[in-house]
């Protein structure tokens, strides 16, 4: 694979940044405001990954989810709370700054593809990782299917002219591995994020790494 890789696509939450506390805080504050039960922080490792709507569906009481008149105001309140909180608690995982610097020095293009709302994703990357130039930061948009649909990943390939086999895709969940496989990218599972080795292996990870700098061995 030496010298073949031209770009790296990163998932955001659980891959580039440790945002679990931030996600849990925004969700639990929203649930509390409506008088609904809250959840321990660890539960959000499994609530997160498919975007804001699914996150709130998993966290809210089932009878609320089934009633649009109750669920939609809850979702709207969460989106507002999360937008205000984004980037205030989350921080890059240990080793990520060094990895981004090393990739930039090698001329590797950097991308972010996340199911976090698009505006929040851009602000989050700019606030938490201001010293690195990402070529594209793509979050959840109304006109583009969310991961694991590969549409966003394919968009990156088409707009850059980079081939799938020339792009590493780094993520911490089955959603990410399936997205990479669907786009023809090289799926790399990270073991410092929200999910376990077994999930990553079963969903198509070609490589698994324990520390960000191990990615450099795949270039």
From TrEMBL:
GO terms for biological process: DNA repair. InterPro entries: HAD-like_hydrolase_sf, HAD-like_sf, HAD-SF_hydro_IA, HAD_2, HAD_sf, PGP-like_dom2. Pfam families: HAD_2. Its EC number is 3.1.3.18. It catalyses: 2-phosphoglycolate + H2O = glycolate + phosphate. Belongs to the HAD-like hydrolase superfamily. CbbY/CbbZ/Gph/YieH family. This is phosphoglycolate phosphatase. It comes from Desulfoluna spongiiphila.
């Amino acid at each position: 694979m030496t010298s073949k890789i031209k770009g790296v696509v990163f998932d955001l939450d659980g891959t580039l940044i440790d945002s679990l506390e931030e996600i849990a805080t925004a969700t639990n504050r929203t649930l509390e405001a409506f008088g609904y039960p809250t959840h321990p922080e660890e539960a959000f490792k499994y609530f997160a990954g498919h975007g804001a709507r699914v996150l709130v569906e998993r966290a809210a009481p089932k009878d609320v989810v089934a009633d649009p008149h109750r669920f939609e105001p809850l979702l709207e309140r969460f989106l507002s709370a999360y937008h205000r909180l984004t980037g205030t608690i989350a921080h890059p995982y240990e080793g990520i700054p060094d990895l981004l610097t090393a990739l930039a020095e090698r001329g590797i293009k950097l991308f972010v593809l996340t199911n976090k709302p698009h505006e929040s994703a851009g602000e989050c990357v700019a606030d938490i990782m201001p010293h690195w130039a990402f070529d594209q930061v793509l979050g959840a948009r109304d006109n583009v299917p969310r991961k694991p649909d590969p549409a966003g990943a394919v968009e990156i390939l088409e707009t850059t002219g980079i081939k799938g086999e020339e792009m590493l895709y780094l993520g911490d969940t089955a959603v990410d591995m399936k997205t990479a496989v669907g786009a023809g990218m090289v799926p790399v599972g990270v073991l410092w994020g929200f999910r376990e080795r077994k999930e990553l292996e079963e969903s198509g990870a070609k490589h698994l790494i324990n520390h960000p700098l191990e990615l450099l061995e795949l270039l």
